[in-house]
Design the sequence.
């Protein structure tokens, strides 16, 4: 199988899955595919390419290795499979292909671009192919793990829509509760003003309220909608268009419904920092 592993962590790195290759994945400097996320283990996984087959083996990682939303110890990979090394998402793609048409090319600093204002017309039936493929990625993930729909949504916003970070937060019994988060959010979630931003939504005529502010050293878009938690976005090199934000809120509403009807046997535990 002539394929490559495309990292969807904002770096857009591509690793060829050549015949005979043995690729270690982790944060150790000895790993062929070196990752930097704190929740990824030093020696997290091994990918081998033998006799036309690509096999993924978890190496006893702290937070697990997943294929298409299911945790695995060992699995054979094929084109289109979505792999997650704890919080870091990658996808197996045919060699020389694009990333499924779901992302714009990276800027020189590795940041993916959001769609520019005016390109996304939600009122027309002509949804761009780039968005169709992106939504298909999200729907497939939701179909596999509806009970973690909010987690999947924020991963989608980072991996597929060019956000540097995304989170869903709400006020519960006077305390700020972060329901899901993905990306570069440590400073944002540690900022003492977070609670005030999450509570800030006031609504008229059932509309959305979008506020741009700073938490930590990051510019943040806080989106408030009626009967919904607050959606926090750290934009990439371009601000999302208002029509994109409307789409994100509509998907947030769907994610909430999915979580309310799902009854998974085991809720996924929070990620632990690996050693």
Sequence:
């Amino acid at each position: 199988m002539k394929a490559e592993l495309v990292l969807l962590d904002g770096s857009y790195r591509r690793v060829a899955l050549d015949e005979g290759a043995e690729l270690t994945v982790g944060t150790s400097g000895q790993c062929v595919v070196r990752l930097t996320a704190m929740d990824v283990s030093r020696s997290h996984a091994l990918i081998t390419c033998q006799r036309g087959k690509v096999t993924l083996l978890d190496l006893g990682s702290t937070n697990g290795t997943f294929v298409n939303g299911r945790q695995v110890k060992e699995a054979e990979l094929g084109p289109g499979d979505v792999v997650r090394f704890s919080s870091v998402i990658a996808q197996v793609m045919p060699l020389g292909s694009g990333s499924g048409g779901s992302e714009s090319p990276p800027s020189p600093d590795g940041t993916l671009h959001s769609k520019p204002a005016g390109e996304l017309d939600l009122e027309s039936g002509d949804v761009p192919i780039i968005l169709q493929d992106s939504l298909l990625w999200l729907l497939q993930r939701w179909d596999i793990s509806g009970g973690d729909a909010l987690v999947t949504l924020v991963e989608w916003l980072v991996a597929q829509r060019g956000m540097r970070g995304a989170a869903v937060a709400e006020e519960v019994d006077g305390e700020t509760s972060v329901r899901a988060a993905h990306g570069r959010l440590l400073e944002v979630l540690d900022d003492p003003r977070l609670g005030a931003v999450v509570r800030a939504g006031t609504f008229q005529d059932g509309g959305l309220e979008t506020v741009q502010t700073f938490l930590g050293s990051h510019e943040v878009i806080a989106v408030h909608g009626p009967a919904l938690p607050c959606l926090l976005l750290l934009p990439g090199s371009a601000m999302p268009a208002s029509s994109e934000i409307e789409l994100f809120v509509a998907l947030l509403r769907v994610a909430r419904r999915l979580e309310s009807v799902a009854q998974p046997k085991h809720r996924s535990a929070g990620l632990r920092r690996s050693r």
Observations:
- The chain has five helices and 16 strands.
